[in-house]
Amino acid sequence: MKEILKYINIPILCILLGLMFQTIASVFTKIAALNMESFTTATISTNTFYFVSLLCMGLNAITWQIVLKKYPLSVVYYVNSSLLVIMLFVSRFYFDETITDGNILGSIFIIFGLLFLIKKS
Q: How many whole angstroms separate alpha carbon 112 and alpha carbon 43?
C-alpha cells in the first residue's frame, strides 16, 4: 500500500475531490429546491437532498484543508473557479438548462486564465 501511495499526489487528489464534493453539493441543493413545494424549517430539515449536500460541503472543507496546507491560497482560490465551468456542463446535461454564448465565452476565459496561472506557478 505504501508503494501505491508514493505515486499519488495527495494535494492534487484533494483538489479533484474538493471540486467533486462542491459539484455534488450544488446538484443536490438544486434537486432539493426543485422537490420542495414550500420552504419551511420542517421541509428543509426532512429533505434528504439537503443532508447529502451538507455532507458533501463538510467533506469539501476537509479536503480543502489539505490543499490549503500545500498550496498558496491565491492559486487554490483560482483553481476553485473551475467549478463555474463544471457547473455549466452539469446544469446543461443534468438539468437541461440553456447555455448561452456568454457562458461559453466566460468558460473559455476561465480555462485560459487557469492555464496561465498554472504555467506561471
A: 42
100 occurs within a structural domain: yes
Q: Which residue is listed with cell 413545494?
A: 37
Name the pTM for this structure: 0.82
Predicted pLDDT at 4: 62
Is it the case that residue 93 has pLDDT exceeding 80? yes
**Quick check: is 1 in a domain?**
no
Q: How many Å apart are CA 99 and CA 77, to the nearest integer?
A: 25
Q: Which domain does 98 fall in, by range?
A: 6-120
Number of domains in the chain: 1
DSSP 52-69: HHHHHHHHHHHHHHHHHH
